[in-house]
Amino acid sequence: MEDKTVDEDDKFFASFGKAPEFFEKLDYLLKLGVDVEPSPQENEKEESLLWALSLIVGQMKPADTKNNLLLPPQLMEYREQSYLLDPFLERIVVPTVEVFRNHVMNFVTQQSSGSKPSYSLPAPLNPTDVVKSVNFFPHQVADISIALDYLESPDSPALHSAHWKMRYIVLLWLSLVCMIPFDLVKFDVDKKPHAATSLTTAKRLEALALKYLPNAGIEREAAATLLSKLFMRSDTSDLLSDFFHQIPSWLTQNPDHFKGIGLLHVFCEITKSGIPSSISPYLSDIHEVLSRISSDETLLINTVVRKYHIKLAGRLSLGVLPSRARKMAKGRKLLGASTPLEISDDIPDDLNIPEEVESTVSILLENLQDKTTSVRYTASKYLARLAERLPTSLSQQLLDSVLELFAIYPSNDNLDDLPAIAEPTWHGACLACAEIARRGLVEGDRVRDLVGWLKKALLFDIRKGAHSVGSSVRDSAAYVVWALARSQSQESLKPYALSLAQQLVCVSLYDREVHVRRAASAAFQENVGRLSLFPHGIDIILKADFFAVGSRRNSCLVVAPQIAVHVEYRVALLEHLTAITLVHWDPAMRQLGAQSLRVVCEKDMGALAPLAKERLLRLLGSIDTNRIHGALFGLSELAAAYKARGDQNEMLNIFHYLDKIPLELLQKQHNGHLIEASCFFLSNTLTNQSLVSRDGTPRWKRIIDLGLRHRLSEVQEAAASALKTVSSLIDVSDDIKRYVPIILKHEGSSYSFSPTYIKEFYHGTPQFQQSIGYALGEISYNTYNNAVFSSMNCLLDTVDSSSTSYSTNVETRRNCYTSVPKVLQILNEKIPEVFEPQILGRITTLYLKGLEDYSVDERGDVGSWIRIACIRAISQTIKIVFRICPVLEKRGPPDLWLPRNTYQQLIGGILRQGVERLDNVRREAGESFMRMLGFPQLSDNGLWALDGFDLFKDLFVTSESSDWSNAQDHFPKAVQILQIPTYHTPVLYGTILSIGSKTDGTQRPMATCLTNFASSLPVSAKKGLTLIGLTTNILDVAQSHLSANQIVIPVLQTLCVLLENGVLARLGEDEAGLTIVNWLLTIPTIFLQTIELLPQFLLHPFPKVRTDTAEHLYMVLQANDFDLDTDEIEEIILETDWLTDVQELKSKADTLITVFKTNYTSK
């Protein structure tokens, strides 16, 4: 899959630009009452504010948001750059914490449960930011009692199951305040007589922490932090002793993962900065805990248990070893500094290493091969830290043990035969080497050994099923190179500088994964900045920086040729492409690698192209189809380079390479990718000489025929490309006529066609017809005739529903519609010489029919594919006609080729699609129409002037946004087109269909926009669109499609929308509206709503309106069967004198409406 070139996640910012907006909403949120039960509306407002704040700083993803958010999902820019918030943390956290602290104090002092706070403490922050935020928590002496009482109270809001964030924050708060430099006993002395518990403060803290220690949630982490801070106090030694006495029973009685994780987390926090003196007496107990956990297979299944297990073992071992000082040499950070990282060797070689250290080293080496990345990374860090504290000889032995991990699974130089299970081992070994190298512990010959393994690790990519594994290995290998640059001298790395530079450049350009490319680029940059050993280093890091290698296509096709200008890297790039990229498991990588091979070789075709051909020729002889596929694409691109230089001899030489591939291999069922590559190969290598054949059917023709008959569209397109090349060299009329015999029958041709193709055309597969439909649009008709008339008629008959050759296959019709403007484009000024004006008339007629295609199958609205193809075809055809207008005038008036009426219908068809329900159809209609607005013929007063051009320009050209796929933005503008009489009907059709759609994102915006537009119209006027005219036109749509439910039902839904919003109630303002209201009675779905409008006409101030309404209503009742008793209604109408005073008529009108409703509801 191709990398995204532009993406929201790829944005990088220099500052927190949304700070004013964020703090405005935060201040508003903090002013809301916390201790008062909010109403449902206030609660929804608070939640929306909190969600909005979280979106700004990126705590939540757009997929998690609600419809009523105050901010759009675009405010997610800072999710990956939370460090930009660090300067604002104090301003964010302090007022928030103060409000929360006031809530806690009010609750504790008044014992009023109040409502839940509508936010957690630093709720708008990522979990990783909470640790930074703790520094801004209140830490007054009185806070410890307040926080304890709050969390212990049975009515505390924090005890609600949904408020886990609140519990987490309070526990962290307690872990901070329990570090106060006062004896905790003082709080027991000052305890109030009415206190709810008799436990000491220390016991209460311990009990609270132990309560949440076995939890599965994030409270466990805060509880472990609280316990560690509590146990490290000098006045809690008795608690520590009791704690260790309880541990054996915990591990024996029903041990579970979460309790084990919490226990290990406590010990890890305690030993984080060394082994405190208060813990020393209990070291044997801690080792016993480690031993029990390591022997319990059920606990070790959990990843977090294994991680904390090795972390604790490593910290305990570090605590019994002496530290070794490291000194960074002065000037080390300068470019080209040659002084390595200095490490004081003050640890004697005869240092007595405790036995537990040796045991820990074995555990860490074993966990370097763990299946989980976090465990391997933890093991690598502590292995390097232990190596740093060991004597030099032992640290080198430890490095040797790590290097031996690479050789556990023997393989060849290309790593082809490595098993997939080797990935975690190689990854762990690379991580350990990086951590060891970062500390300057790689010396002497081990640098050579390490670099040798790194060259292999940078290419570690093992196929596993439908994908591959190894990206983590390549990423960590780049990390090792980065670490070596920070710790080694120029002299130690100089022998390997060129090979490392070439390897890193190749990986940064051609690796499939973006994070690996960026890691290799960073390693290259670090080496250039610190050692200055890499050739042309500064120039290369300017070209292949973090952003340049972010896009796979950009790195392969733009950056690679820029680097290939340096001779030192050309051969390395070529070797990597032919040995790695062109044999990659991903076909997209092979194709991209072939394109990159061309642009690299073009830097020196004389030297590089022969070398590339030699290597690719060897790949053609492989039994691996992936290698053959890559070789074919590579040779195809080389031939394209020679073709651009006009070197037909080299093209002919490459063409003969295709003979090395057996035709039987291409005919196998699952080798479509080989046929595709072979067809592209032919499209770039065919010459007049290569087309000559003395042995019956040429091989190239059989390959193209295989491609045209293949079921995959990409193979068909490749075959069409090859056929295009052939048609530019020779006349392929006979081959085309062979595929379209029916057209010849229509022409009365005496051509003797094969019965096989006649049968195949009548009864062939839809895929074959689809292929021919596409291929006919690719043939070069401007060089030779190539049966252009037959081709065009075949395309038109295939999409003409009245033709016997009409295809029911959607893909075939789509391809034919796509090919028609291509044929016209290829012919260009030759159109009048080949076609008569009637052909262009038939083409435009079929375009209009295609816009009416709403075919549906199990895949959905597949007719949209045809509508999109027709929209593109219309804009392209109109552009062609405008361009060759001077040539057309020589054969007759332009109106003969494209009548104005037809032209207006084509424009109206595009505008109609621009207001329908599918976003992609509207987008295509918008793009096509916007391109057409740029045609000068639309703005002048000539034959093809666009009606309402100024309005279109104001709506879509001068406005800020013209995204037609955005319903909210586009529909308010689109309904304005209804004012243009020429396009009123097609746009009204599209509007009605959108309102009748089931797509909520389309139906609601369009209904709202039409309601607002109709409300702005006058009821009646001498000029322009009126409400009566709009409503009449809507009814006309239904009247003209009474048998089509797909039209009538949307019309009824449109009328219901206008009725429900009171728009049609305004019809009573004009007597012309009475006819519409009476006829609306004939529509059952809106019968009751329409009845409510009758009194506005029956009680109208003008007697003529009242009498006309009664008369027309009587005629409607007589002419239509309402399936209800209308005798009493007709009697009221006939016996009432509608010329009398309105006040006297009110009772009659009310009675009439009541009878109407009663009879309707009782039927």
From TrEMBL:
SUPFAM superfamilies: ARM repeat (SSF48371). This is Tubulin-specific chaperone D. One of its GO terms (biological process) is microtubule cytoskeleton organization. Keywords: Chaperone. Residues 904-1072 form the Tubulin-folding cofactor D C-terminal domain. HEAT repeats lie at residues 360-398. InterPro entries: ARM-like, ARM-type_fold, ARM_TBCD_2nd, HEAT_type_2, TBCD, TBCD_C. It holds the Pfam family ARM_TBCD_2nd. It comes from the Eukaryota. Residues 341-538 form the Tubulin-folding cofactor D ARM repeats domain.
